[in-house]
Specification:
This protein is α+β, with helices and mostly antiparallel strands and 560 residues long. Helix content is 61%, strand content 9%. It contains 23 helices and 15 strands. Strands 1, 2, 3, 4 and 6 form a five-stranded antiparallel sheet that branches. Strands 5-10-9-7 form a four-stranded mixed sheet, with helices on one face. Strands 8-11 form a two-stranded antiparallel ribbon.
């Protein structure tokens, strides 16, 4: 590491100790890396706080990169327990706005023209200021009202520097902490690296907005802002300005609330099961109410994508939950994830049965979707089932949507609301008149299996008859046992050879008259040569052959 990185590591170690994580820094060897240990007192606020809250306070004090890490982790219920997700969801960017002259400089550098040639006016007071970018209202040269999102100067370089430190810390943690959960620290840093660089690239967000605009062109109840491509780049994004009121601040009648609730459900359904592209952060600040009970969706930095197989799996999961079929829920979750080990499906199913029984009443005012989804994800983590991040993001989006629906129309009957969409989903899945229907695909797969099965069975029977049929059984324990038996046999063989050689050398050389006192010098020399030779052979086998396969991390763990 360079000196700057070491200074950052020292800063992280001090702040972590101040928030009660001194044991982690000690185990990770940060102070050994820095050469000296500083005595840091735990702050009074951290002494009273829970681990999750102390973790949030730690990230908040470490600065924009770590705040962003916490915000991204708050969307990943498959990585952290619910308590941590709740705390990290409260992380807010607390940064001062950058001066207007820096905004102009960034626009000029990114778009290659003077600001006055691009915009007739830019409001000097930002609409919002965050750790990555800030937003200003503006007017184009053609008179269109727009919003301009400008990336903070130097933020990309600062994040890359912090990522270098994070990777080093992750490797240290992996070397000293045996149990790191379903994901390793390095894996989490890799996920963060990908997510943060996608967010830093405004071209990616512009592409998301264009895709949403194309998907919703025939849905008049939901408006998506237009992208001004000629006024956008990797660090500047210019969008259509939409006049509206945040849904949490709008004054609505009961009928208006009912209509808007139906629009939210309809839009969510179409995004998930028609488009395969859904908004990853639909909180009330990103949803505006327009005239005519229409809605506008904002901020497309975080989106989720579902493939057709993922959509079909989601349909079956929703159906299994609605029917309270815990066995099917367990098997679907197991199939959609990647289990690190062989999961205990019986225990998994019993735990799911308890969750479904607790959280599945009939009216929206009683449903706690937040707890239901979080409990299911927590169970997956408990049983070491790695759920794809798209489902975790969908869980976060569903929780936000459920919260808005609860505020808008808590009396809405969930069965009455969802039943038409459930019928549509099942009709599309099992309608044989549609070649793309799920039933048709299932029949085609079964037909292919039925066609190939006789040939495959015939091949197996012929191999069995001719003696070519073999069954290979692999098990880690058998491999370890085989390795140990081989080692014992080789060591025993070398030991017998050494004993025979030593005795033979002593007898042979002892017959010579060369004596020193009453001691046969040549016999002693023969014993020494034999011992040295076989000692060298044994040492080569032990360290050159066997220990060479031991990884550095395993070696470090054995030294602890």
């Amino acid at each position: 590491m360079i000196l700057q990185d070491l200074n950052r590591v020292r800063q992280i170690a001090v702040i972590a100790a101040r928030h009660g994580f001194a044991d982690v820094t000690e185990r990770a060897g940060l102070w050994r890396m820095l050469g000296r240990k500083e005595k840091v007192e735990v702050s009074p606020e951290s002494q009273r706080a829970s681990t999750a809250r102390r973790f949030r306070m730690l990230l908040n004090e470490l600065g924009p990169t770590f705040v962003k890490l916490g915000q991204i982790l708050s969307t990943r219920g498959d990585l952290l327990p619910a308590e941590f997700i709740d705390e990290l969801s409260m992380l807010q960017d607390q940064v001062d706005p950058i001066p207007l002259d820096q905004v102009h400089a960034q626009i000029r550098e990114s778009l290659g023209k003077e600001v006055q040639d691009l915009f007739a006016h830019i409001d000097p007071t930002p609409l919002a200021a965050a750790s990555i970018a800030q937003v200003h209202r503006a007017v184009t040269q053609s008179g269109d009202e727009v919003v301009v999102k400008v990336q903070r100067p130097g933020i990309s370089e600062r994040i890359d520097s912090d990522l270098t430190v994070l990777r080093s810390l992750a490797r240290l943690l992996e070397a000293v902490i045996e149990e790191t959960g379903v994901y390793t620290p390095s894996g989490i840093v890799d996920e963060f690296d990908k997510a943060i660089h996608e967010e830093l690239d405004f071209i990616n967000e512009a592409s998301n907005i264009r895709a949403f605009l194309a998907n919703h062109v025939d849905r008049p109840y939901l408006k998506i802002p237009r992208v001004y491509d000629e006024l956008s780049s990797r660090k500047v994004l210019t969008l259509e300005f939409i006049r509206g009121v945040k849904i949490s601040q709008a004054k609505l009648s009961e009928d208006d609330r009912k209509v808007l609730a139906h629009h939210i459900v309809e839009g969510s359904f179409r995004q998930l099961f028609d488009d395969g592209l859904f908004h990853g952060d639909p909180h009330p600040g990103n949803l505006l109410v327009l005239e005519g009970n229409r809605l506008a969706l904002l901020d497309f930095g975080v989106v989720g994508r579902l493939t057709k197989p993922m959509q079909e799996t989601l349909v079956m999961l929703c159906l299994a939950v609605a029917l309270k079929d815990s066995d099917s829920v367990a098997r679907i979750l197991y199939r959609m994830g990647q289990a690190d080990t062989r999961a205990n499906l019986v225990g998994f199913r019993n735990d799911i049965d308890n969750i479904i029984g607790q959280h599945l009443p009939t009216t929206l005012g009683q449903v706690d979707a937040r707890t239901l989804l979080r409990d299911l994800l927590d169970l997956a983590v408990k049983y070491r089932i790695r759920i794809p991040k798209e489902y975790a993001l969908l869980s976060r989006a569903s929780v936000s949507t459920e919260g808005m629906l609860r505020s808008l129309y808590p009396e809405m009957n969930i069965l009455e609301m969802v039943l038409p969409y459930a019928k549509e989903l099942l009709a599309g899945r099992y309608d044989p008149s549609q070649f793309q229907g799920g039933l048709m695909r299932t029949l085609l797969r079964f037909q292919s299996l039925a066609t190939d099965l006789p040939t495959q069975l015939s091949q197996i029977l012929l191999d069995l008859e001719s003696g070519k049929f073999t069954v290979t059984v692999r098990a880690d324990q058998f491999d370890k046992l085989n390795e140990n038996l081989r080692s014992v046999a080789i060591i025993a063989f070398l030991g017998l050879c050494a004993c025979g050689f030593i005795v033979g050398a002593f007898i042979s050389f002892a017959q010579k008259p060369w004596m020193y006192g009453n001691v046969p010098v040549l016999g002693i020399v023969g014993i020494a040569l034999a011992a040295a030779f076989f000692g060298a052979v044994f040492t080569w086998y032990l360290f050159g052959g066997r220990f060479r396969k031991v990884s550095v991390i395993r070696w470090l763990k054995k030294r602890r």
